[in-house]
UniProtKB/TrEMBL annotation:
Residues forming coiled coils: 17-51
Protein name per its UniProtKB record: Uncharacterized protein
SUPFAM superfamilies attached to this UniProt entry: RNI-like (SSF52047)
UniProtKB keywords: Coiled coil
Length: 521
């Protein structure tokens, strides 16, 4: 066989393999002898007493080049990975693309299972006979793309997945610039061609549809989601919906019974809370819930939280204008979330007034990350409900992020003293960490696990010492956690000194990300 044939990814018969191995051994032996000949001839050539050279270097080196090419080609032809069993190769293909859904239309040749089909006939045959490779799709909707062609592609993709393999479907986000005049007709086609026919096979489903179509799908009779584990519902923001179309229709809870495996739920862009029916979704089974731009009332959120016995991650938005907040909400005596690890709460439309009724009944003893945000800048608010929650239940919290709430130096200091287990404290560079508290942290008396800090300071020398002490402590005996990120604004009439600048650069060389900005007074 010629070298070009050997360099392909073709699989050769067993008798050819034995012959190729013999050829490679013989070529290797000949190459070793030829290398020795050339080396001796080069030594003779360098000798001053040598006569005119009689050794033909051109022929020898050309032969050496051919032998090397033959050995490399035989190695490729006899490579053991080419002769893996089809079942094992199929499993390797699945692992290679697991967690990477295919964008359709494809964005490149080498980042989807089609690349396997272009390698060789054997790989193509195995790939096409591996249904799991053709199950996870992201529908690309954008400028220059024909959505009806994409519909055909997705249907063809799912055909290759066989009749029973579980599927996932997502949509790339689109903007007003990619919005088409026939957008609503396209979304209807997506719903009736890609969603409804395969609904019994979906494992993961992400839908961006007009509200009416979403509600129609969720309440469609005799429609079951037996394999569905995660669901993301995004209300299409570019469809203008008349008041009659978005009128809320009470649900009968059928979806809860028809999605027995659903544990992960996201809802986006529903604005008003009427869609979040407290009886419709399977709250008792959820381990993760995330809502964005979908506001709730306190009573509604607490009713949901009481049902979320297994919840691990929970994110919601409270709005003072939501139905149910017109009157003082009735406090639920006690809401314990024993498995909650991450808790995100966003307050909209000056909903900080809802902090006390919302936080007061909560008990979250295992929470590790707490994110409190406000849509608007809150200059005046009562921090007592938050401090009460932290003090009575957040015993081992590691990450605290408070954004867009004004924090006095006393409140920041109280946070540090109340939460000794903190690893990450993000209060914003506009909020001062008092010098006394900063010194206690630098000496290791407070926050021994601190890795990251974002705040304002008034003593840069103490801040640099803090990071240096943490770095030295983690390297010597593990007394402290290794510092990773510090963003600090400092108030001073003096600039950073040359010595301090050198020390900060040394910290950066040791892998600590440090950003220090001076604020002129």
């Amino acid at each position: 066989m010629d070298i070009q044939t050997l360099l392909t990814n073709d699989v050769f018969p067993e008798e050819n393999l034995a012959q190729l191995k013999l050829e490679r051994t013989a070529a290797s032996t000949e190459l070793a002898l030829l290398e020795a000949e050339i080396a001796l001839a080069e030594l003779d050539l360098e000798s001053e007493s040598a006569e005119s050279p009689t050794y033909n270097f051109f022929i020898a080196r050309n032969r050496r080049r051919n032998l090397r090419a033959l050995i490399a080609a035989c190695s490729v032809a006899t490579a053991p990975q080419k002769y893996l069993p089809a079942e094992l190769l199929s499993y390797i293909f699945q692992l290679s693309f697991a967690g990477y859904p295919t964008d359709l239309p494809p964005t490149g040749r080498n980042i989807n299972p089609l690349a396997l089909c272009h390698t060789c006939s054997r790989w193509r045959r195995i790939a096409l006979n591996t249904p799991e490779l053709w199950t996870d799709v992201v529908f690309r909707y954008g400028r220059g793309l024909d959505p009806y062609t994409t519909l055909d592609l997705v249907e063809e993709w799912y055909t290759r997945s066989g009749p029973s393999t579980s599927l996932s479907l997502g949509f790339s986000p689109w903007t007003y610039h990619t919005y088409r005049s026939d957008h609503e007709e396209i979304m209807q086609a997506v719903l009736h061609r890609l969603v409804v026919p395969y609904v019994h096979r979906f494992r993961h489903l992400k839908l961006q549809l007009p509200r009416a179509e979403l509600q129609s799908l969720m309440t469609m009779p005799n429609l079951s989601f037996p394999l569905l584990q995660s669901l993301q519902l995004v209300r299409d923001p570019w469809v203008k919906e008349g008041h009659a179309r978005v009128k809320y229709r009470p649900t009968n809870g059928s979806f809860c019974a028809n999605a027995p495996r659903l544990t992960d739920l996201e809802v986006h862009n529903f604005h008003i809370s009427s869609f979040m029916d407290t009886r419709f979704f399977p709250w008792t089974r959820l381990t993760r819930f995330f809502s964005d731009n979908t506001h709730m009332s306190v009573s509604q959120s607490q009713t949901i939280l009481r049902k979320c016995h297994k919840i691990v991650e929970f994110a919601l938005s409270l709005d003072v204008m939501s139905r149910g907040n017109e009157q003082a909400p009735v406090l639920i005596p006690h809401i314990e979330l024993p498995y909650l690890r991450r808790f995100d709460v966003t307050f909209a439309n000056e909903a900080h007034s809802l902090m006390r009724p919302f936080f007061e009944p909560l008990f979250i003893p295992e929470v590790k990350e707490l994110n409190i945000r406000s849509v608007e800048k809150m200059s005046v608010w009562d921090s007592a409900p938050l401090m009460s929650l932290l003090g009575r239940s957040c015993f081992d919290i590691e990450i605290l992020h408070i954004w867009n709430f004004h924090l006095s130096g006393e409140v920041v200091a109280e946070l540090v003293h109340t939460l000794p287990s903190l690893c990450v404290l993000l209060v914003g560079v506009e909020h001062l960490l008092p010098k006394g508290t900063l010194e206690e942290i630098a000496k290791g008396r407070l926050l021994p696990k601190l890795r990251s800090l974002v705040c304002r300071i008034d003593d840069i020398e103490t801040a640099v010492q803090l990071i240096e002490n943490r770095l030295a402590g983690c390297e010597l005996g593990g007394t402290f956690a290794r510092p990773s990120f510090f963003m600090l604004d400092y108030i001073s009439r003096q600039s950073i000194t040359h010595d301090q600048a050198i020390r900060v650069d040394r910290l950066r060389e040791n892998g600590v990300e440090v950003e220090i900005t001076r604020l002129c007074t």
